[in-house]
Amino acid sequence: MKKNTWLPVASHPELLVGQYKVPNFVSNSVTIQVNDNEFVLVSPGASLLEHWPEEWRKPETKIHIIMPNAWHFMGVSAWQAAFPNHTLYASELAKAKLIAKKAFSENQDIVALQQKQPPLPEGYQFLFPPGHRAGDVWLKKQTSDDTSTWITCDSFLNYERLSNQPVARTLQKILGAAPGLKMSQVVKWLIINNKQAFKTWSLNQLEQDNPTTLIPSHGELTQDEQLKEIIKSVIKSSL
User: Fold this and answer.
1) How far is Cα 222 from Cα 233, in angstroms, rounded to an integer?
2) Which residue range(s) make up the domain with 17?
3) pLDDT number for residue 164
């Protein structure tokens, strides 16, 4: 995908993905168009703001900003400044951690997604995978053909190749983070703090959802009819 721009996802006209780098690794922001003037924005990258379509910059534009865990907040302030008509959301656990580490003050209203959620187009649903240290939030879109799209956070990486940057490349090799769909050692030992809870939940969710599109927070979008089995194999071999 082209960096620092917004690209549509095939067969999902309301869904766009934008890529940016933090600091040397590809990261993804996702936007879901609810209506002409309302959008759900997941993990916003600051550099993507200048590429936001001009027709979506109306004074009445409403942005629902989702922080999908307690580590995905660095671009939020830029989007808050650009769109005063916004609401911040995070999971209950992520909200508590963001306030505790003073990324946000208690006076800044962060809505806990378990208590109240933004409007979503038909078929969309928030998921709360257990066992995540930073309170991960996922989204899924269930389609009429009994397949789904998964928009995940840090659980999975999908880098097509090893980085050209020497330090990043070395880290990817050491941590088992590339190439291809991976659960790196960072995920295994630092991000997931209850491996069995996450493994049981995710394998059950795979059977229920049958995802054929995966949009991770880091790496490339993938669309594959065999994606369910690929993810299942990654989980079983990693956990």
Assistant:
1) 16
2) 6-238
3) 64
- For β-strands 62-66 and 124-127, DSSP reports them as unpaired
CB 58, CB 37: distance < 8 Å = yes
How sure is the predictor about 184, in pLDDT bands with cuts at 50, 70 and 90?
confident
pLDDT digits (tens, 9 = 90+) for 151-167: 999 899 888 766 667 66
**CATH number for position 206:** 3.60.15.10
Residue 111 has pLDDT above 70, yes or no: yes
User: Is it the case that residue 142 has pLDDT exceeding 80?
Assistant: yes
For the full predicted model, state whether its pTM sits above 0.85.
yes
| Spatial separation of the C-alpha atoms in residues 29 and 18, rounded to whole Å | 5
SS3 154: coil
Determine, yes or no, domain membership for 1: no
Number of domains in the chain: 1
Which amino acid, 38? E
Pairing of strands 26-35, 12-21: antiparallel
User: Which DSSP category does 187 fall into?
Assistant: I
Q: Is the pLDDT of residue 192 over 80?
A: yes
Tokens coding 177: 């983070």
Residue 203 exposed, middle or buried by CB count within 10 Å (0-12, 13-18, 19+): middle
Tell me: the pLDDT tens digits for 204-218? Answer: 999 999 999 999 998
* Residue spans of beta strands (DSSP E) within the chain: 6-9, 12-21, 26-35, 38-42, 62-66, 86-90, 110-112, 124-127, 138-142, 148-151, 157-159, 180-182, 211-215, 218-219, 222-223
117, 145 Cβ separation under 8 angstroms = no
